[in-house]
Design goal:
It is built from five helices and four strands; from the N terminus they run ααααββαββ. A four-stranded mixed sheet has the order 2-1-4-3. It is rod-shaped and about 125 Å long.
Length: about 240
């Protein structure tokens, strides 16, 4: 059991080094993720506005054809005025002329509104494009910094991961499960050392008899307060490099 518990200390040291490597990246991974979300949002907004702009232009082109057709009809009705034979025919054609003129006016007004809307959409698209380009540049710069950092740490991380796998091979599965569950739940620190009769991580006082048992290193004991695995190494003050 002493060898198993010593392996836990070794495993925790490896995980501390891996965590330090991860922390050395700073907030770059989170920043890249946030910038990527912004880029997606800008791209979706630009795509939607471009789609709306294209649809409006198609509708306006259709309206122009409709107005052209109505003007031909209006000209036809106006010519017919000179061919009427009685007041009834005159009144009927006059109604057609008035109706057609109103339809032309309404359609042209609608097209003017659409043209104004298109100007607004185009302005919004033009305003978003440089913002998108700047955000893409920021993400690229952050990614380059992260890639450069990873190039430096990758070899060390691979070595640590290999050492971790070697250490895991010496640990019984139930003990590793306890270690891993505690590590995840306690911010990456699964073990604690008995230090001056207390837990090195939460400073809880350990009863003398339990402290003696921990020093023997022949059984796994958990801190009753923080739940970490209590171990003993007279040369260690705390976890993650503390000596």
């Amino acid at each position: 059991m002493r060898e198993t518990l010593a392996a836990l200390i070794h495993l925790q040291d490896i995980d501390c080094e891996l965590r330090a490597l991860e922390q050395s990246k700073g907030d770059l991974p989170q920043r890249i993720a946030a910038l990527t979300q912004e880029i997606t949002r800008f791209e979706e907004s630009i795509t939607a506005k471009k789609g709306e702009l294209a649809a409006s232009r198609r509708e306006r082109d259709s309206g122009a054809l409709e107005v052209a057709y109505l003007r031909e009809q209006l000209k036809k009705y106006q010519n017919q005025l000179y061919q009427v034979k009685n007041n009834k025919e005159y009144d009927a054609i006059t109604v057609e002329i008035e109706t057609t003129e109103k339809n032309i006016e309404a359609r042209e007004f609608q097209m003017l509104e659409m043209e104004e809307k298109e100007k607004v959409l185009q302005a919004e698209i033009e305003a978003l494009q440089p913002v998108l380009a700047e955000t893409q540049q920021q993400r690229g710069e952050a990614q380059n910094r992260l890639d450069a950092m990873l190039a430096v740490t990758r070899e060390k991380e691979e070595i640590l991961q290999a050492r971790r796998q070697e250490t895991l091979a010496t640990l019984p599965k139930p003990i590793y499960s306890t270690y891993e569950r505690t590590r995840i739940g306690r911010g990456g620190i699964a073990v604690a050392f008995l230090k001056d009769g207390s837990c090195s991580e939460c400073s809880t006082r350990i009863p003398p008899q339990r402290g003696l048992e921990i020093r023997m290193m022949n059984h796994i004991y958990l801190c009753e307060v923080c739940g970490r695995i209590m171990l003993y190494d007279p040369d260690r003050v705390t976890v993650c490099g503390g000596r």
